[in-house]
Specification:
Blueprint: H1 12-18, H2 22-43, H3 47-70, H4 76-101, H5 108-131, E1 139-141, H6 145-161, H7 168-186, E2 190-192, H8 205-220, H9 222-248
Antiparallel strand pairs: 1-2
Length: 271
């Protein structure tokens, strides 16, 4: 009986020549298309449409990874290509949108805040790709770039919906918000990934009612509900960090009990 020789593993370049997984890559292309279209619409001052395109890109970005895992079509090419698409849709597009809406009002400071967001987002993606194999599946280290992009996008969409007049004070506040989001993306604050959320398991009736209530609120009051949920997510990371530090803080130890002898009175001299 002859032993079948083990074939050597194909190099990455040869595997790439054989082809790429089409279905998840199409969702990634759709993600990039939404980001590119958002930039074009923002350039022509169609800011509301540009914002919704970024949110649509976020939906497509969430779907491509799940479809790749469900169809067992994950690959190194798909991971790297997805990151390049994310730089366009969640880095350049929201930074340009925020600058066109309000950051322009503070001149070079607004330009710097928008560019800082783009740099922070690209750093966040590079760090995620390096640590993805060894990272905790339940938590992200730093705010995910789709959440950061959604924060800037919802800031613009809510401002347009409320007819906010972009004064210099509003522009300064918007720049500060962009800066805070950028810092959260490159920080070590942990955010829940919700990758352990399983729709196929049994849920109690109260949980089903809660999910139905969230869907109803999103359907009838979309922008306020999305802004509220995202604000809760942004604050959840720092809140849990502070809570963990408080729980780990050791209780103050009481001072050791010391026994001191009573002072002795000097003997009187007898003359």
């Amino acid at each position: 009986m002859s032993v079948r020789p083990v074939r050597p593993r194909r190099p990455a370049r040869e595997s790439l020549r054989r082809g790429i997984y089409l279905l998840p890559s199409l969702f990634t292309v759709g993600n990039m298309l939404c980001g590119f279209a958002s930039i074009l619409h923002a350039l022509h001052n169609r800011l509301e449409l540009a914002g919704w395109l970024i949110l649509l890109a976020g939906v497509l970005d969430g779907l491509d990874g799940r479809i790749a895992r469900l169809t067992r079509a994950t690959s190194d090419f798909g991971k790297e290509y997805d990151s390049l698409a994310d730089v366009v849709s969640f880095g350049i597009a929201p930074a340009f949108l925020a600058y066109q809406w309000g950051l322009e009002g503070v001149g070079r400071w607004g330009w710097a805040a928008a560019f800082l967001f783009l740099v922070a987002g690209s750093v966040r993606l590079a760090r995620f790709n390096i640590k993805a194999a060894h990272a905790d599946r339940l938590f992200f280290v730093g705010l995910p770039i789709p959440a950061g992009a959604s924060a800037l996008t919802l800031m613009v969409l809510v401002g347009i919906d409320l007819d906010v007049i972009v004064t210099r004070g509003v522009a300064i506040a918007a720049s500060a918000f962009v800066f805070i989001v950028s810092v959260l993306m490159v920080s070590t604050v942990r955010y829940r990934s919700f990758k352990d959320f399983n729709l196929r398991q049994r849920w109690p009736a109260t949980a089903f009612f809660l999910f139905a209530a969230i869907v109803a609120i999103l359907a009838f009051s979309t922008l306020p509900a999305m802004a509220f949920l995202l604000a809760a997510y942004l604050l959840a990371g720092p809140f849990e960090l502070v809570l963990r530090k408080v729980r780990r803080k050791p209780a103050p130890q009481p001072a050791p009990f010391q026994v001191t002898s009573a002072p002795t009175t000097p003997h009187a001299d007898h003359h």
